[in-house]
Structure formats: C-alpha cells, structure tokens
Amino acid sequence: MPAPRHLDDTPPDGTPSTEDPPDPRWALILGVSSGTGAAIAEAVARKPGLGVFGVHRGRYPDTARQVEARVREAGRDVFLRQADASTPDSAEAGADVLLERAGPRSVKLFVHAIAGASVGRFLSEGPDRLHPRRVQRTFDCMAHSFVYWTQALVKRDLLAPDARLLGLQNPLDQTHLGNTGLISAAKAALEMYVRHLAMELGPRGHRVNLLKFGTVMTPALHHVYAPEALAHLEARHAAMTPAGRMCTVEEVARFVSVLTGDEAGWFNGATIDFSGGMTLRLMDLVLNP
C-alpha cells in the first residue's frame, strides 16, 4: 500500500495536489461481507479514506474478497476477520485483534450491520414459533452486540477522537408487517441502546446514532426470495415510495460517508430517517388500491 501523503506533499512535477490525504484512521464494520456492510466499507475507504476492519461469518466468501480488493484499490488497508460477531466473547477477541492491527484511538467509524434475525409468530404452535433460543439469537445479533462491541472498544481506548458509532434501523417501528415482531422488538432495543450510549459517550466527544432506511437489494434477499417474489417486492416499493423505486445500498453507503464528516458532528442520539418517505403512502395504498 502506498505511504500516506501529508498535507504539504506535492507530486514530482511540483504541481500542488488537489486530493485530500488518506485518513489514517479505521472503520470497524460488523457484517462486512455483503449488502449494506460491504457497500459502506467500499464507500468510506474512498471518502474519507478509512482503513477497514470488518467481521463476517463467511457466508459470502466471494463478495468478501471483492470488498478486500476494492478497499485496497482505494489505497487503504483492510483486514477481514471471519467470526460470529454477535457474542460478548467475539467482541472481546475481535477488539484485541483490532488493537494489535490498528493501535489505540484508531476507530473513527463503527457500523453495526449484522443480519441474523428469526421471523415467525410468538404464539404459533407450528414451526414458525419464536422459541427462546431464536429470541436470544435475534437480540444478540441485532441489538446486544452493539453494546458488547462498544464496551470492548472503550475498554481498549480504541475510539478515535470524535468517533462515530452507527446502528442500522428499518421502518418497521412505524408499521406492522406479519412475522417480523421479533425483529421490530430487537430494533427497538437497539434504538434505546443508541440513545443511552449517546449520553454516556457524548461527553467524551463521540457520537452515537441510528440510520433508518427501507428495503434494499442484498444477497440475503436474493437467497430468501424467488425471482418472481423479488419482482413483486420491487413493484410494491415503487408504488409506495415517492421516488418510485427502492433505495440502493450505494445510496446508503454514500450517506454514511457524509455522517463521518464534521458537518454531521451535531447528530447524537438521533434516529436519522433515510427511508425516502417509504411509509407515506401506506394508508393511501390500502384505501385507494
């Protein structure tokens, strides 16, 4: 990897550079190998130029290799760790590796993009019953692990000055969708964690927020839905979203880059709505189909 350029560096021909120097700090991204996490890794490697330390379960090895290649193409360092990031032990072990790799006060951005939820019904007597193990696993993946990793980062003094910690939310807090009650509950817990951590970390100069956006096309969706179902999903989103289409992972990732900048430094404890007005037409669609 080329050595970082300082502000007063100039090219060999003596022409002052118009490019910003690479940022020596890092982004920690849980769920980095596909979907939103992968897109965010590539975006923040380009702007503001962060190194990427990512954790993933190994389900998408091809896209994980693509993430590594694209981050390196941006001139940044990258280290992807294959592990289950949802447990307290994995957070401690991962933070130890990150400290050795990047050093103290190196994490400018922490993004919690883990997917791992169970769908079903709380009172069902069939195979979709949400048993305690499913409940615990969903809360560990989608809520508790945000706290586990934050504790591990603070314990090792890994957060850079003015670090940004970001959880990801969806619009299910505004409406009802069958079989997703457990996901909604876990995301509600995540929102409370974000607010309380914002209070605890605010005096230290850090910012903790939640980014809410609608459905985006990811490998997980392609794995779950048949092509016909995906086409129907896209059509329904086009009908209810003012822009007439679904959001993309690239749009979400570019906005995360914005949130790392000084201009976004006053967001704290916020649920930032990046849904594009996805739920505005729900009543209209029901009453005037």
Could you give a short account of the major beta sheet?
A: 7 strands, parallel
Beta strand count: 7
Radius of gyration, CA atoms, in whole angstroms: 20 Å
- Give the overall silhouette: globular
Structural class: alpha/beta
Return the domain count: 1
- What's the architecture, going by CATH? 3-Layer(aba) Sandwich
The CATH superfamily is identified as NAD(P)-binding Rossmann-like Domain
| Strand percentage | 5-15%
Total number of helices: 9
According to CATH, what is the class?
Alpha Beta
The CATH topology name reads Rossmann fold
Strand order of the largest sheet: 3-2-1-4-5-6-7
Order of helix and strand elements from N to C terminus: EHEHEHEHEHEHHHEH
Short note summarizing the structure:
The chain is of the alpha/beta class. The protein is built from nine helices and seven strands. The N and C termini lie far apart (56 Å).
Characterization of the model:
By secondary structure, the protein is α/β, with parallel strands linked by helices. It has one domain (26-225, 249-277): NAD(P)-binding Rossmann-like Domain (Rossmann fold). 42% of the residues lie in helices and 15% in strands. The protein contains 9 helices and 7 strands. It has helices at 35-46, 61-73, 88-102, 132-155, 181-201, 219-224, 227-240, 249-259, 282-287; strands at residues 26-30, 51-56, 78-82, 107-112, 159-169, 207-212, 271-273. Strands 3-2-1-4-5-6-7 form a 7-stranded parallel β-sheet, sandwiched between helices. Helix 1 (35-46) crosses helix 8 (249-259). The radius of gyration is 20 Å and the shape is globular. It starts with 25 loop residues before the first strand and ends with a helix. 36% of the residues are buried. Residues 1-24 are annotated as: Disordered. InterPro entries: NAD(P)-bd_dom_sf, SDR_DHRS6-like, SDR_fam.
